[in-house]
Write a sequence for this structure.
């Protein structure tokens, strides 16, 4: 890391054994080397690492764009490199914002090529599983198409929307002051690192440009429907998006296991969440994820709880229904 404050804090907390500001002999004899800089920097560091890689070393990264860094064959590193992308994190960056459980239950995409020994690929999968992540194997080109649509496009939309409101706000910033749950939810990621997202857009330019064209086309279609008061088209857009969004929590196929989720109306009062958690813990029902949904689709606040198994979900429904909680599944 070039940030000496981050290195000092990591050393102070005994998270690292050696603090390095350059690539040097400290990188010899590693089982894994993770490149965690912005995507363009990761690619630039490859050449500097060539002399430090042992035969068994796995070289990887955590970037959300893979095409450029997979050009490792030009450096003779293709038998070492396995692309990695843990799909976790937040809009905050840096060591001070790290969390021990950050990638638990998160999808960890791996992009090995045919040049990498099968044993190395298996070792990396097991390593990801040991961190309680969920490894998914993809071709790196497919990875870039997918992330361009479900990750990079939303970040561009969020940032553009924030800038649109900034530009069109009233003199007394009434839009900013009145921005509520829905606006904050869909624009939270606009607070992400500008450096990181500048590089992502440049590195994944072709895929992002393609999906932007398609998205703009859909925006124009709905604008025309609104201009022409085509009620059926407007309704169909909202109905289709609702059905697809609701299905995300219950997806079940060979790649991604089903999520076991329920939603509970909760009173906006101190201790409401703790009470529910205590009810489930007393009966040894394990919770995978829990959180408040800020956009109010129901009368009161909505608590989303995700479980590891269908049996745990059903047990929770029985326990909470007995205590007169209103439960919804979507």
């Amino acid at each position: 890391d070039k940030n000496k404050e981050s290195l000092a804090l990591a050393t102070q907390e005994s998270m690292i054994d050696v603090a390095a500001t350059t690539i040097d002999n400290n990188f010899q004899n590693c089982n894994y080397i993770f490149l965690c800089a912005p995507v363009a920097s990761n690619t630039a560091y490859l050449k500097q690492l060539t002399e430090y890689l042992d035969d068994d070393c796995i070289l990887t990264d955590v970037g959300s764009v893979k095409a450029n860094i997979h050009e490792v064959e030009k450096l003779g590193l293709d038998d070492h490199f396995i692309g990695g992308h843990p799909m976790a994190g937040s809009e905050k960056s840096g060591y001070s914002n790290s969390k021990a459980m950050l990638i638990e239950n998160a999808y960890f995409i791996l992009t090995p090529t045919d040049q990498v020994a099968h044993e190395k690929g298996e070792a990396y999968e097991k390593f990801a599983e040991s961190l309680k992540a969920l490894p998914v194997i993809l071709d790196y080109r497919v990875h870039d198409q997918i992330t361009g649509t479900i990750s990079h496009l939303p970040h561009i939309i969020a940032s553009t929307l924030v800038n649109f409101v900034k530009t069109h706000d009233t003199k007394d910033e009434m839009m900013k002051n009145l921005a509520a749950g829905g606006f904050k939810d869909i624009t939270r990621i606009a607070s992400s690192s500008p450096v990181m997202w500048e590089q992502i857009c440049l590195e994944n330019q072709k895929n992002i440009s393609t999906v932007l064209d398609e998205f703009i086309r859909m925006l124009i279609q709905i604008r025309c429907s609104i201009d022409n008061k085509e009620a059926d088209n407007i309704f169909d857009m909202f109905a289709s998006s609702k059905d697809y969004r609701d299905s995300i929590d219950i997806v079940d196929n060979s790649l991604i296991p089903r999520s076991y989720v329920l939603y509970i109306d909760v009173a906006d009062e101190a201790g409401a969440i703790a009470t529910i958690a205590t009810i489930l813990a007393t009966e040894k029902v394990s919770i995978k994820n829990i959180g408040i949904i800020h956009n109010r689709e129901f009368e009161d606040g909505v608590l989303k709880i995700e479980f590891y198994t269908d049996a745990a979900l059903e047990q929770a429904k029985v326990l909470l229904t007995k205590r007169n909680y209103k439960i919804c599944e979507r």
Q: What stands out?
A: Confidence is low (pLDDT under 50) at residues 295-299. The CA atoms of residues 251 and 314 lie 18 Å apart.
